[in-house]
Amino acid sequence: MMKIKITPVVGLFFAVIGLAGCQSNSLPQATVRASMTSNVDDYNYLIGPGDSLNIFVWRNPEVSGNFQVRPDGKITTSLVEDVSVTGKTPTMVAREMEKILSKYIRDPIVTVSVGNFVGPFGQQVRVVGEATNPMAVNYREDMTLLDLMIQVGGLTEFADGNDAKLIRVVDGVQKEYTVRLGSLVKDGDISANVDILPGDILIIPEAWF
User: What range(s) does the Polysaccharide export protein N-terminal domain occupy (predicted)?
Assistant: First the structure.
């Protein structure tokens, strides 16, 4: 019978291969972030990357203007650099700008408005699966499930609408709700309409024929 002699170098090679086989190739799970809006009655728009901010400083047109929020969530104006604005309301940014500009201007009065709304990802509503145009939709005040379905063009012919799931993070815990899209969209059953919140994810499965 032939005997195989394993040298230290060969043994080390097999040990490394075995260790590599035990290592996980999976990525860490995405952070679960609850929407800052938990009630449709207290919704306030939050600024996000890509938004265009119109910052008006009363009696100081030279420091007023339109500024786009960078991908890192910050803006730079003619007087100040790297002001973090993402996840804040326009009013919050206005008060913060007044505090910063008070170093250069006496008693500044600032107003902030938003154009070209994009908003942070956590404030968007995502539709995946058997929608005609699955996409991320910018949340609007008082948005309902029917409004959302109109935005994505309704259901495909292969959709199992009444087995759709609405994923929502509540107090850091992911919850799943069944929604009756088929009844709502195809049968016009308004009782199947529900309120949508920023950060919701709507998953529409394919029907099994």
Answer: 41-114
